[in-house]
Amino acid sequence: MNREIHTPQTPKHQEQPSHETQTHKNPKKPITLLPLIFLIYFEVSGGPYGEEPAVAAAGPLLAIIGFLVFPFIWSIPEALVTAELSTAYPNTNAGYVIWASSAFGPFWGSLMGSWKYLSGVINNAAYPVLCADYLKRVLPHAFADGYRRDLAITGSTILLSFLNYTGLTVVGYAAVALGVVSLMPFLIMVGFALPKVRPKRWVSMGDKGVKKDWRLYFNTLFWNLNYWDNASTLAGEVERPQKTVPKALLLAGLLTCLGYLLPLFAATGALEVPQEDWYSGFLADAAGMIAGNWLKIWVEVGAVLSGIGLYEAQLSSCAYQMIGMAELGLVPKWFASRSKWFGTPWLAILLSTAITLAVSFMSFENIIASANFLYSLGMLLEFSSFIRIRYKYPTMKRPYRVPMRIPGLIIMCLVPTGFLIFVMVIGSWVVYVISAGLTALGVAMYFAMGYCRSRGLLKFIKEELVVKETRLNHRINNFIRIETLLYQRFLKLFEVVFYGL
């Protein structure tokens, strides 16, 4: 494939991407600022649900330090990269795929797409599992282990995917409602906990005799604070993305940090419980201890609502990424197909749901670790693409620009890069095998798509554009030939008439 197709902006002309007109047949864009804030919030966090293992792994003090420090060394750099590149490549859903393609070529763009897409759909399998775990605490018989649990996971996955099919307008405002309702019980818990907080409890379990599980600790922090760049695959659906995306990233970042820290400060400061009691879902028990059983039930219901929001946001990002990849010619044109009723990528939603269901019966730990590993590979390529694009296209129009030169950007990216490598090193052999197999699948897919394109076995959007341009050129050339022939005959007729007279 011609690399120029994947380099939509050149330093000389500063043109918009050639695929921009192909991204939206419908000019109306469904996502405004408020829904985008909550979609990013759910892509990254969805609330403090799931932060409990950090306390179980290293105690309350290190958990608090982790959620205080980690946003600065990981979340902010990733959000800054996303803000700059999303505004440099607006009006497309290709996101990080087009960044890697522009920086290093179509092979790396395809591999980026494979890593990020697979990490997203694998990660999405965790949310129906979490919902089933919380519902089991309320209705233990209905969601007991075995076929009932499997049916609950399968049914909830299909139902949530259908909700996603109804459109981003519905999903966006549903995310706003889910975010408000799921966060409210924690604000109430903080209010009840304030008179009971004793700062010494924050360090009471931090003595040397407590065993530290660093793998669980760092995986928990990483899982709770990543996927900021998923906003880029929705940029083509956002109203005025150059202004809206950076604002939404900033406000979603503040909401995410407060959503983690306030309940953690309150629960660890107000309660004195053994470290091993901080299992996943303990915040519901903590709310009950602090305020009463009514708040415990609300937190458990909020966890289910948060899981719904997380699933919807992640599925939207994965599905619309496939539209962007189809527009770049990296996957067949079918994946750019949209529903006639809702304008959603129905085939991409169907594929994503099928993969999520296939991996939803893995253990929760392996789901998270595998998603983290693939995501880490993609982020290493993303940081490299960011530096490469800044060097390769220094005059490219960037409505938002990180206020640093290339040396400063390299330093900014080195710290999270070191953490990415650490997360990959502490992975288990099962994670290595799964990630290696899926990476090989992504490489094979790229060459398979090239083979299908060369043999005409599948249809691609870029190929169709080339054919249309070729036909147009033929028509123009034919018109020029006819015009030239008519002009020549007119001259001959003029000569005959003139000399005849």
From TrEMBL:
Annotated protein name in UniProt: Polyamine transporter PUT1
Extent of Basic and acidic residues compositional bias: 1-23
Organism: Acorus gramineus (Dwarf sweet flag)
Keyword Cell membrane part of the UniProt annotation: yes
Family: Belongs to the amino acid-polyamine-organocation (APC) superfamily. Polyamine:cation symporter (PHS) (TC 2.A.3.12) family.
Subcellular location: Cell membrane
GO molecular function (one): polyamine transmembrane transporter activity
Ranges that cross the membrane: 31-49, 55-74, 94-111, 171-194, 248-266, 341-361, 367-387, 408-426, 432-452
Record region (Disordered): 1-27
Any one Gene Ontology cellular component term annotated for this protein: plasma membrane
Topology term for the membrane: Multi-pass membrane protein
UniProt keyword list: Cell membrane, Membrane, Symport, Transmembrane, Transmembrane helix, Transport
